[in-house]
Amino acid sequence: MKEELIKLRLSTKMNRKEFADYIGIPYRTLQDWELGNRKMPEYVLRLMSYYICFENMSGRDSDGIEKSPQIICDADGNKILVINDIKFDGRNPDWEQVEELLKEYVGKYYEIEESSDKIFIGTDFPDEYAHSNDTKSLRGSNIKAKANAVSGIPEMIRIATNQDYSDNNKSKHKSDARNGWYRYDTRFALPVYSDDEELLRYNVFSARMLVRHAKDGELYLYDFLNIKKGTCKPLEP
Q1: What is the DSSP letter of 83?
Q2: Rounded to an integer, what distance in angstroms lies between the CA atom of residue 63 and that of residue 104?
Q3: What whole-number distance in Å separates Cα of residue 101 and Cα of residue 99?
Q4: In terms of pTM, does the model score above 0.85?
Q5: What is the DSSP letter of 39?
Q6: Which residues of 118-131 are buried (b: 16+ CB within 10 A; e: fewer)?
Q7: Up-side HSE of residue 52: CA atoms within 13 Å toward CB?
Q8: Intervals of the chain under pLDDT 50
Q9: What is each CA distance from 92 to 61, 99, 126, in whole angstroms?
Q10: What is the helix (H) or strand (E) element at residue 19, kind and residue range?
Q11: In whole angstroms, what is the distance from residue 80 CA to residue 158 CA?
């Protein structure tokens, strides 16, 4: 238990005094736990881990500066991208603006950690993402989620898992997807605020990343499909 506590503290890059003040426990108590002089209750370590996790998820550092999207792990070790930069608040997003934001990614590529696949961003991606039939079918919180996921496209690619392949059966894609289609699972979380702008929780969404295998042999991101709020318990702040 003491080894896990020390590892947790070192992950914050704090010394004992700083960590004790940060968590809100007496310095001597922390010292005794780390030295093994007293046994630390298991639930306390668990609460500390949750506290540190969600402090990081809050989206701001100690100076109040907005953080970029962050990747965390759930209780089962599965990765979730936490997006705090909410650009579209309503459930009727400006998809033309979404498309313009996505154009910033065109010409770049990002690597999937699990498979080491390099996923390129082609010129067709912004339009497909913003105006596909899948996007038009979304409702409620799911449509807001897809609009705000634009802030985390590189990270969503990075944590994608469960690669699945299928042949291309559509004549209109005989060139741009000549070698078929790949699909991957990915997840992201968005904050939910009260009317007083107090952080209440994070809702977790799943998505199916669609990638075309073009005639040039490269993999190109095409869209994120089937975005929906997960059935798992929402992350608490």
Answers
A1: -
A2: 28
A3: 5
A4: no
A5: P
A6: ebbbbeebbebbbe
A7: 19
A8: 59-66
A9: 31, 14, 18
A10: helix 16-23
A11: 11
